[in-house]
Amino acid sequence: MSELLSIIDVVPARSSKSSTVTPHTVDSPHVSSRSTNSIPTVDANVSSSSLEALEVEDGGLNKTRVVVVILVLTGVSFLSSLTNGFIAIGLPRIASDLSLPAHLIIWPSAVYPLTISTCLILAGSIADVIGNRNINLAGCALTGGFILACGLAHTGIEFIMFRVMQGVAVALCLPTSVAIVSRSVPAGRSRNIAFSCLGFVQPIGFSIGMVLEGVVLDTVGWRFLYYLSGSLCLALFAVSLWALPHDPVIQGSILTKLRNEIDWVGAFIISTCLAVFSYVLATLSDSVDNIRHPVNIVLLVGSVALILAFILWQGRRERLNLPALIPNSLWRNKVFTSVCLTVLLTNAVANAMETFCSLFFQEVQHISAFGAAIRILPSLVVGFCIQLTTGLIIHRTSPFILVLTTLALSAGAPLLMAVISPRWPYWYAAFPAQLLSPMACDIMFTIGLLAVSEGFPADTQALAGAVFNTVNQFGQSIGLTLLAVVSAVVTKKTEDQGKGKDEALFLGYQAGFWTAFALGVPACLVGGFGLRHMGKIGVKRD
User: Is residue 31 included in any domain, yes or no?
Assistant: First the structure.
């Protein structure tokens, strides 16, 4: 904590001589989802509770409290990602202990990103109206409770339902964490580091979760880690009650604001679309033959129709000068659109690489789960260093140079794994692939989050966080599904030709790595052409 304190800028304390809070207006040519972005002037004779509620806008957090805020916000993301690592390694044992039917084996891992993607936009919109603190606190408490519940589950169905609710709870935390950082941490190095922390704790949590699960699975059992993680999350909730800054006092009726300031129809359309499409992706990742089922075809066509309906609805809201969830005009900003596409593609590659490398080590090279986790560990170390370094230097350098360099390097990771031989030592290709794999994804998390948050007005920062995290989650789902489908098709075709299981698996995974490389190339093109005019971001403001 002392190291983090040394690199966080001091947040100026509230002056005792100040008699008013100066109105602050954020101009944005891209978004107009509220009638005004001004924070009204407040007289000096307001109550102490009102002054406390305005501490975010007036910069009343000292350096220690800023660090604590960052730690509690990142802690919840870390613990949630930790449980995903538990699932990645321990799912076969969990399924056996809970008598989970074979046709439901993918759902403990699939329902979590599905529910997060579905709920993020709506959670961010509501938080922007009624306040980020309370929504985040509720999400933190519920996350801890449902992680504990997973450890207490007696049946497979119970476990899946608790994972569903954990995803909903985390969806309350992710966008509000972005908004709280944007409003309580000053622009510049402090905020850049905070956003970097929000980024690197997710892959770190996942990787550490895999290692821990591999260690305890045959000793104290998988339930112990859920008890520990849930308890730690509830402890973070207790700290958050003190640490998280209060929101400005809401003027007027909350119900009226919820009714008038949220695009409920748009939220319903996009949430339904994401839920349906994520479900189809999950079924395809289980078996490519599922696309032949009539119900999945109908759902896939329906999700495409909902996307078109959402675009038309947002255009209508803009023409009528009504609050729009994600205005169509926002996508005319080339930098914003390029950032979102690049984040989607880099997350698709990085997440799929982590999963398929683990499968390659275990299924093709017949290394234990713990050994596979150790071999993936270098990507964790590189990711940590990249995220922290990005937060420290992004305000002083050109983001375009950073993005283009890391995109080119990371594209080499799946290429190395695509040409690998199972007989090669780890150091020949697999090790450098682990070093290169996380670079672009981790750089783009910080740069993308800064760019997206700066593209939205100050009063819709939770929605900005929701949009970014939705793109992030969606990219992970698309990448994993696409590689799973390609790998399954090639493996089955190879087996039908009479070749052995190990060779068929290897050729299937090899095809998956080539697919990941094919996703990395357009990411380089989008980043190279779309972000070449991107100015400096994360710069400290007066």
Answer: no
